[in-house]
Write a structure and sequence with these properties.
The structure holds 2 protein chains of 2 kinds. By secondary structure, chain A is mostly helical. In chain A, 76% of the residues lie in helices and 1% in strands. Chain A has one domain (2-444). Chain A has helices spanning 2-20, 23-43, 59-78, 80-86, 91-108, 113-131, 137-168, 179-196, 205-212, 215-240, 245-266, 271-288, 295-320, 328-331, 334-337, 339-353, 359-373, 377-403, 417-435, 438-444, and strands at 48-50, 55-57. Chain A has a two-stranded antiparallel ribbon. In chain A, α3 (59-78) runs antiparallel to α5 and α6 (113-131) runs antiparallel to α7. The radius of gyration of chain A is 20 Å and the shape is globular. Chain B is mainly alpha-helical. Chain B has a domain at 140-181. Chain B is built from 8 helices and no strands. In chain B, α1 packs antiparallel against α2 and α2 runs antiparallel to α3 (49-73). The N and C termini of chain B lie far apart (74 Å). The chains are: A mainly alpha, B mainly alpha. The interface between A and B is large, with 49 and 37 residues.
Chain lengths: 451, 181
């Protein structure tokens, strides 16, 4: 309860303070609030429940909540330069970020479908506004597209929740019913969550929105939101039982997602869009974990290292982006212009590709092992194949940064000290977790997803 | 199906059709308001009295009036709604809707209520404000608090999008920033 309360109060304070105080105060208030919430979740995150079980803070809620806070903090710490360059910094930006992280906490910390839906809305509404906050055509398109499709997805999910209630008489994710009404409700709820987790065929919004939204917002969207969506998705799927229809649907969606996400990424020529497709593909890998007998540790660990790696890649792009996105030409010869950014980008991409000495490898290893333990060998084999395809486009981007000549007009990006330190720290963490994954694995080794 | 059910169904479908198909935004909004009123009476007939009145007061009353005001202020009540950029989508949408409708009709007809009608009616307590209130502020207190937070967040998000300072383009903002420096 403490981290959730801290996050809401942070948003509230930022909203009230911002009316009078300069924006840089609000920026620091939000950063301090997020850091405080992170500390509270790590050290005082006592498991338990409140409000008659509507609020359920179990180990997995804590893990997903921590990933959400880390994502928000990361976006706040590395986004300053982008906000300044595009002239879009205003206090509401920071307040909305805090509210959205609060929504992630709410959504992750409940096994009740109604509360999950409210949490989903609390985390989504700020993002619709944040995506459009750059006020140019691309950004507005991203915001509008995200809003319209997100509203439809929420409505579909709500419809499903109502049908589930009609079939089982309960809003709990663990309520299992029978008959066509139950299955129809379950499918609709899954469709809504698939949308938020950007799984194929509900991913159409993701590339456009990730590309059009301000880059630090994209950083948060691709990492924090996914943690919340998967927390809810895993509870629903495991609650309904992977042996039944839910498992079959997820298997089909995973196949489509890893296939389409990776092939789609091959065809891109813009770095943000490429990473958007890559994040679609990673959603497929994360979903693999639900088939195992104990999905929470693998899923939590993957979400965390994925958030660090994808966050790192988007953090580098935030330093290169002047508001028009980052076409491949902007990445060319990065090593000459800024060896530090190029090095960090290399760590991020190696980790995303799942190369052994980086944290991403252990994430992939854990979810593949988990799915294999659940007997899904065909799925694992297919996912492994597509992971090889993924390595190609990551390496292509990396080769551009390291071996291509910069061309004319490429100026050296100036990286603020705070962003540089943050990226260095996260890059170090990705390396360290790659060599010693056991350091943090205990934190992710939590028990049941469904009470 | 009683006579009331039949009339309510026909009215709901008819007003819903108007809301979706009308070329004039004001007509569509009024169709939706009528839909809400019929829905409110359906709720009341199911013993959900408080919900029925809330449906009429809040939706048909407050929200639709607000909606119509906005339509009027924006002069959006014109007959033409512009070029349809995705004309082929209409048929597919209709087909998907038909399949969805058929599936749901089948699912509902095959479903069995988890509670017997008499038990459910006793739990409903006549659907009065007293019965709803004690559930809302008791069992569902957390959800009520969260909805309060959600409304606050929605307000901040809405205000940020229409804030007058930000109506200018980025070039203009850069110019004004340069002027200050």
């Amino acid at each position: 309860m403490i981290p959730t309360a801290i996050l809401f109060l942070t948003g509230l304070l930022a909203t009230l303070l911002g009316v009078e105080a300069p924006v840089r105060w609000v920026r620091w208030v939000v950063r301090a609030g997020l850091a405080l919430a992170l500390g509270a979740a790590l050290f005082f995150g006592a498991e338990g429940q409140a409000f008659g079980g509507l609020f359920l803070y179990d180990g997995f809620a804590r893990v997903a909540g921590v990933v959400g806070i880390v994502a928000g903090l990361f976006a706040s710490l590395v986004g300053a330069r982008y906000l300044e360059r595009t002239g879009m910094e205003r206090f509401e930006y920071h307040a909305l970020l805090a509210y959205s992280v609060f929504g992630v906490q709410v959504m992750a910390a409940s096994a009740n479908l109604v509360v999950i839906l409210i949490g989903l809305e609390i985390l989504s509404l700020p993002l619709y506004a944040l995506a459009a906050l750059r006020y140019d055509a691309k950004s507005e398109e991203a915001g509008l597209k995200y809003f319209l499709l997100g509203a439809v997805a929420s409505a579909v999910m709500l419809y499903g929740i109502v049908l589930l209630y009609g079939a089982t008489g309960s809003f709990a994710v663990s309520a299992v019913g029978q008959g066509p009404l139950y299955l129809a409700g379950l499918l609709l709820v899954l469709a809504g969550l698939f949308f938020k987790a950007s799984l194929v065929p509900f991913h159409w919004w993701a590339p456009d929105v990730y590309q059009g939204a301000p880059t630090p917002v994209t950083l948060y969207m691709a990492t924090g939101v996914k943690a919340a969506a998967f927390a809810a998705l895993a509870r629903v799927v495991v609650g309904a039982g992977v042996g039944g229809l839910a498992g079959a649907v997820v298997a089909l969606v995973v196949v489509l997602t890893v296939f389409y996400g990776n092939l789609g990424a091959l065809a891109q020529s813009e770095a943000k869009r490429l990473l958007a497709y890559s994040s679609v593909a990673h959603a497929g890998y994360i979903a693999l974990a639900v088939f195992g007998p104990n999905p929470a540790p693998a899923m939590g660990f993957y979400l965390f290292v994925y958030a660090l790696s994808t966050g790192l890649a988007f953090a580098v792009l935030s330093q290169l982006d002047e508001g028009e996105g980052v076409p491949f030409a902007g990445v060319k010869g990065l090593i000459k212009k800024s060896p530090m950014l190029a090095g960090v980008l290399a760590i991020a991409l190696f980790s995303l590709a799942g190369m052994p000495p980086f944290a991403g490898f252990w994430g992939k290893y854990l979810v593949f092992v988990e799915a294999a333990r659940g007997g899904q060998y065909t799925l694992v084999a297919f996912a492994l194949l597509t992971a090889v395809v993924a390595a190609y486009y990551y390496m292509k981007l990396l080769a551009l940064a390291f071996f291509a000549s910069a061309g004319e007009g490429g100026k050296t990006p100036e990286v603020p000290a705070l962003a540089a330190v943050t990226m260095g720290l996260v890059g170090f963490l990705v390396l360290a977790l790659g060599v010693f994954p056991g350091l943090v694995y205990g934190f992710f080794n939590v028990g049941n997803l469904v009470p | 199906m009683s006579a009331f059910d039949f009339i309510a169904t026909v009215l709901l479908l008819f007003t819903g059709f108007i809301a979706v198909r009308s070329q004039n935004a004001v007509h569509a909004a009024l169709g939706l308001a009528a839909n809400f009123v019929v829905l409110g009476t359906v709720y009341m007939s199911l013993d959900a009295r408080f919900l029925g009145w809330v449906q009429i007061i809040v939706y048909a009353g407050a929200i639709m009036v607000l909606f119509i005001f906005v339509v009027m202020l924006l002069f959006a009540a014109r007959a033409e709604v512009g070029v349809d950029p995705l004309p082929w989508l209409k048929n597919w949408g209709a087909a998907v809707a038909a399949v969805f409708f058929a599936t749901l009709t089948y699912a509902l007809s095959a479903a069995k209520a988890p509670l017997a009608g008499t038990t459910a009616a006793a739990l409903l307590g006549g659907g009065t404000a007293k019965a709803v209130g004690s559930v809302l502020w008791g069992t569902w207190l957390y959800a009520v608090l969260l909805v309060a937070a959600l409304l606050l967040v929605a307000t901040v998000a809405a205000v940020v999008l229409v804030h007058p300072d930000q109506g200018q383009s980025r070039a203009e903002r850069e110019a004004s920033r340069g002027g200050k420096a």
